[in-house]
Amino acid sequence: MNAYYSGIDLHSDNNVTFQNLTARNTGGRIRGDDVKRLTDEDIYRLFQEVHLAMAAIANLHVIQVLSNEISVLEKEINKEVREDKLLDLLLSVSGIGQILGLTILLETGDINRFAHVASHQGVGVKPRGLF
Question: 47's torsion region: left (phi>0), alpha (psi -120 to 50) or beta?
Answer without folding.
Answer: beta
